Amino acid sequence: MGSEREALWRRVVDVKYGSLWGGWCSKEVKDPYGMSLWKNIRKEWKSFSKHLYMEVGNGVRIRFWHDHWCGEEPLKVTFPELFSIARDKEASIADLMSFGTWVLHWDLSFNRNVHDWKLESLTSFMDIHLCYIPSRGTGKDDHRCWERPSNKNFVVKRYYRSLSPPHSTLFLWKIIWKTKVPPRVTFFLWTATLGKVLTIDNLRKQGLILLDWCCMCKRSGESVDHLFLHCSVAMELWSLVFGMQWVMPRTVLDLFGAWLGKMGQHGSILVWKMVPHCLVWCLWREWNAWHFDDSERNHFWA
Question: Which InterPro entries match (predicted)?
Fold first, then answer.
């Protein structure tokens, strides 16, 4: 929003919701009515902005203490003792920066003198941060870029990876999306892998008052991993496939991550890839039959 200042969509959002300091983002959307598209986009700003880095131009739109423009984090986080006694905590860089005979000067002031135990922090502050020279020149506009170094261009994949847990980088997503099964089964397996299927535990998180028990094995603690892997009914079905009792992985994600390791490049690999899709889908249909039809579809392992 801060980069495309003349774009029509940006001006519409600005008129409707207003802008935060510097114009980098709209104000938070709190109206309980109206379109939810921008409301949901705006909700992720706090998470998204953590990966942004400020390149200083004229310094008008960058706050000296609050924005990430120098070092690894905002100055108020790196030097909380100095921030607490700063005279103008909301000052922009342009308010504090000046060039005299092409030499950069910083005009910082504090409410009181720095105590002796803060001198080390002040020295570090002066040596490291106030020697910083704006990289874009004072005649240019301030600029926001994706992380540091600033030569990284933003792509959705980078932000997606930042939101994913560390182990997900090893996840073989192709075994779900490239398997020869109906699209609705593929999408459901992806939802189950993310732990978003509407099992009892997820419904309870949404505020529904429900008895936390598994309708198939009659035990407490129904979750996505329990329903598809650790329920006694599910384990019986998996055992029929392998012809023996098999120690199930901890999560559905772990199941798919390890699924190809056993078979390697076997000739029936295409069929093997479909096995977890078929079993999980059968278990889900059985679960629905128990809940909504008040019946058992036990013929799925007959």
Answer: RVT-Znf
